[in-house]
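Typical record is below.
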Amino acid sequence: MTNGWLTLAGSLSAAAALAHIGVIFGGANWYRTFGAGERMARAAERGDAYPAVITIGIAAILAVWAAYAFSGAGLLPKLPLLKPALIAITSVYLLRAITYVPLLNMNGIPVGRFAWVSSAIVLVLGSVYLAGVLTAWPH
C-alpha cells in the first residue's frame, strides 16, 4: 500500500527541485522573481558560476528529499535510514517555515513578500511530510 501523503510530499519536493533548475535556465530575472536576491541575480548576469552551483546544490538536496518521500510512500525501494531521514527532512522544512521571518526581523533585515511566500510554501511542504511520517510511523 502506498502512502498518499508521502507521495504528495515527494511530488512537491521534486517540483521544487525542477523549479530551481528552471531558475538557472531562466537567468537573472528568474533569480530575482524567485527571491534569490539582487546579488545572486547580478552574479548570474555576469555569468558567474556561483549562482548556478548553489542552485544546483539546492535542487539536488530537494531531489534526494523527494526520493526519500517516494521511498517512504512505497514507490521506491527502501532507502538507508528512511525513518530518521524523513523526520529530519520534515524538521528542516518546518523549522525553516517558522524561523525565517523572525530571524530576518531579529537581524533588522526587511521582510518582503519572498520571505512570507517561501515560508508558507515550506510550511505546506513540512506539514505534508509530517502527515506522511505520522501515517507511515506504525509501519
Observations:
- Helices lie at 4-26, 28-33, 38-46, 50-73, 82-106, 113-136.
- The CA atoms of residues 97 and 121 lie 8 Å apart.
- The chain has a mean pLDDT of 94.
